Amino acid sequence: MNNPTSPNTWIPIAVLVVVLLLRGRHVGRDRPFNIRWIWVLPVIAVLGIGAGLAYHPPTPAGWGALIAGFVLGVPLGWKRAKLTHIGHGPEGTLIIRHSAAALFLLVGVIALRRVATYEMAQAGAAQAEWLGLATDALMGFALGSILTFRGELWMRARALLRQGWSEPFA
To answer: What pLDDT was estimated at residue 153?
Structure first.
């Protein structure tokens, strides 16, 4: 099951490396920020996690783990958003600049999750309940982080737009 040459081991790592490399290209660079699309990722996350919960409903302890994970994800999302610069760009648009610290924070959380997943898989079937609780907690953590990150960016972008700047890409 934990064969290091199996695709189940290296495909998620390869996808993670590609995603981080793509995100890393934008670190420290100003890019246009369109506030109209900020809701897309949170909706995808809610639908995806909701579908996962509908397919495999958590136990009462799983709901507790999900809520605890959500609560722990909120400060991470807030910190990531605070490390992200939003400002005025040319022609009244908004710009966004992701910081290297925010990327390192994200990489650290992903690495911690991978280590935890590996350790739980090594524990075997006797720890299946723990694996389920950890999965529920990680789903809550991801949801709390994504919703808070996007919500904080939205509030800051709206405040900048209220200062007299036009809606981006109008």
So the answer is: 93
Phi then psi for residue 87, to 5 deg, are -150, -170
Q: What's the token pair of residue 124? A: 């075997």
73, burial (CB in 10 Å: exposed 0-12, middle 13-18, buried 19+)? buried
What does the pLDDT read at residue 109? 65
CB 93 within 8 A of CB 157: no
Segment 132-150, tens digit of pLDDT: 788 788 889 989 998 999 9
Sole residue written with tokens 């992200």: 84
CB 53 within 8 A of CB 67: no
Per the DSSP assignment, residues forming a β-bridge with 79 are none
**Structure tokens given for 28:** 């420290």
